[in-house]
Amino acid sequence: MKKLTQEQIDQLFVFTKKHYVEFYDVQVELVDHLANAIEAAWEVNPNLSFDETLQAEFKKFGIFGFTGLVEQKQNELHKHYNKMLWNEIKSFFTIPKIVLTALLFFLVYYILEKTGAIGETFALAALIISFIVFMFDGFRFIFKIKKEQKKQGKSWLLQSVAQQMFSIPTIGFGGVYFSMIGRFFEENLAVSNAGIYFLTAFLVMHFLFIFVFYNLIKPSLVKSIKETEKRYQTI
Fold first, then answer.
1. What superkingdom does the record give (predicted)?
2. What whole-number distance in Å separates Cα of residue 72 and Cα of residue 77?
């Protein structure tokens, strides 16, 4: 049976890069798929050339080529981590964690109600500080990823997803979150009675998100990236 040469396999890697597949793990998967498809075609007709067989296989990916596959894989990873995030947050509203959530809610509400404008100011300050810490940690994390990519000369699909997982909350904290918080406060920084309930709920959800992100999502991303690097380091 006619087999691909190492030179032809290298050409497949170049071909995937040329068609906008920048992630090495996806390149490996595509090269493996294309190589098997080409060799299967040669088994039927050994006279087919490498180039024409490759182009025939590439056409099967449709008008968007490999781009659709890459986007599909990115979306699948996003869904996986978003589901992990929200499932963990939802667990704080089921027994037994809901007891802790309720205690936290009433504690925050009690503090805000008793301290008035001072407590409200501290609440806003806590949100701003958490945003700044998250933002700088995100920049540090992304810089570390870029540094590793430059060192290895390779990038992984999961790394791009990790960067987006950091950027989405940053955009949220910087935009939607602060516009919502602004509505809680009147000109004299006094929150209405109804506003205290909303502010309390917002604070609790905000810090639950931070807690889950740093205790579950980020460690999972870091672990998965390391496993991916280890899996492909000999390829």
1. Bacteria
2. 9
What is the separation, in whole angstroms, between the first and last Cα of the chain?
24
pLDDT score at 206: 87
Half-sphere exposure of 13 (CA within 13 A, CB side): 11
pLDDT tens figures, 93-138: 998 899 999 999 999 999 988 887 788 788 888 888 888 888 888 8
CA 232 to chain CA centroid, Å, is 20
**What letter does residue 191 receive in the DSSP assignment?**
P
Contact yes or no for 183/172 (Cβ under 8 A): no
Tell me the two tokens of residue 183. Answer: 């509505």
Give pTM, 2 decimals. 0.79
**54 contacts: CB under 8 Å, gap ≥ 6:** 12, 15, 34, 38
Distance (Å, rounded) from C-alpha 100 to C-alpha 36?
54
Any alpha helices (H) in 19-156, and if so which ranges?
24-44, 50-59, 67-91, 97-115, 117-152
> Encoding tokens for residue 81?
């981590």
pLDDT of amino acid 106: 93
The model's pLDDT over 191-221, given as tens digits with 9 standing for 90+, comes to 555 678 888 888 898 889 899 999 999 999 9
Displacement of CA 225 from its chain's centroid (Å): 12
Instruction: Report, as an integer, the average pLDDT of 41-70.
Output: 90
